[in-house]
Amino acid sequence: MRQPDELILEMQNGNEKAFARIYTLYSEALYGIVYSVVRDSDLAEETLQDVFIKIWNNSKSYDINKGRFFTWALNIARNTSIDATRSKAYKNSKKNLSTTNFVDIISSTDNLNKKTNSIGIAKFVERLKPVCIKIIDLLYFKGYTQVDAAKELEMPLGTIKTRNRNCIKELQMQVLG
Amino acid sequence: MTTTELIESGTLELYVCGALPQDEAQYVFEEIQKNKDVRSEVQRIENTLMNLSSEAAPALSVMNWTSILNAITRTRTLGKDTSSNTTNWGAITGWAAAIACVGGIFWMLNQNNELENQVTISTEERNMLEEELEASTDMLVANEALLDVIRSKDYKAYTLPGNQAVAPTAYSKVYFNNDTNVAYIDTKGLPEAPEGKVYQVWSLMLEPLTPTSMGLIDDNTLASNGVHKFENLKDAPQAFGITLEPAGGSESPTLSQLYTLGTTAP
């Protein structure tokens, strides 16, 4: 998808219709990020609302000449989600949950409303190498930097980079391109 | 670094994830602007990741967008409220213009009333002037008619001298037409009649002395400017006399109040 720069500029000028189109284009991808961190539908929806309210209120701080809009919105989504998990009530309710990642979520989610072939995707992502799952989970879903991910996975920086590329390329070529 | 090297390095994947340090991200951004292949690769990576996380998203309630819209609308409304604390010059100008307009209308109404009053006064003045003009014209006509009488060869003029006993300085003049038996009497030489009294004019036949009342010196006989006209005299009188009588006149002259008397004899 080409980045819709005109829509983004319109939104920055306060055009609600442009903002609605942005929501349609990006909400699902960002919701997946939020849900993978929060893992509670109600809280995830609330958090996603906060994410888009932040996108609207801070839209002028995004500079088309400095990076991808999706990457900018991705950062807001991850940070807002992490903030949402810091409340005491959240910690108490989730303390017994085992660590989950996007593969667990995709496998367990009832994806009848999805536009892609969900059953195929679920099967495919389940077959991803464990290292791919970990790398993509940390770098994309959890927002780790390259350095932090290298430390977490005890891998050299360069290895993280190339492995990440290969894992994404595999996804791209097989199913999600 | 060549384009292929950049694409193969895995840097673009980290760029889309937001995991690159700032300086490297800036370099990738510049390459995206310059190089179509890099741009396409970044878009492909972004699509893949967006599709992946979309798959991890449960069904999203349709009310979610409504809640966001309500929230941003409320924020905008509050923003407007805050801005309403600042001076609203548009509204102030509007009200000022409205007040000035109302003031202007009252001023114009006032002016209109004044002008209407002036028109009424002017109309009254014109009417008065017209009446005066009419009166002057009437008087001019009467005077001209009188002048015609005086100049006429048909009228003979007689002066009635004052009675030495009653009014030595008084006099009156009579213009008499023998053919028509019309007499004009000029009363300029008579003093003003006191209140409750009136001058009465008599025609006299001398042999025997027979006074006949011609009429009163009043508005009924006034021809013009102190000259009175008497018509329908019986015969050509031999003398004229003027007496002062009680208002309304008398049957016979009060000789003690005879002011002027004169004969028509040559």
UniProtKB/TrEMBL annotation, chain A:
Residues 23-88 form the RNA polymerase sigma-70 region domain. SUPFAM superfamilies: Sigma2 domain of RNA polymerase sigma factors (SSF88946), Sigma3 and sigma4 domains of RNA polymerase sigma factors (SSF88659). GO terms for biological process: DNA-templated transcription initiation. Pfam families: Sigma70_r2. Keywords: Sigma factor, Transcription, Transcription regulation. InterPro entries: RNA_pol_sigma-70-like, RNA_pol_sigma-70_dom, RNA_pol_sigma70_r2, RNA_pol_sigma_r2, RNA_pol_sigma_r3/r4-like, WH-like_DNA-bd_sf. GO terms for molecular function: sigma factor activity. Belongs to the sigma-70 factor family. ECF subfamily. NCBIfam families: sigma70-ECF. This is RNA polymerase sigma factor SigK. It comes from Patiriisocius marinistellae.
UniProtKB/TrEMBL annotation, chain B:
Residues 96-254 form the Anti-sigma K factor RskA C-terminal domain. It comes from the Bacteria. One of its GO terms (biological process) is regulation of translation. One of its GO terms (molecular function) is sigma factor antagonist activity. InterPro entries: Anti-sigma-K/W_factor (IPR051474), RskA_C (IPR018764). One of its GO terms (cellular component) is plasma membrane. PANTHER family: ANTI-SIGMA-K FACTOR RSKA. This is Anti-sigma K factor RskA C-terminal domain-containing protein.
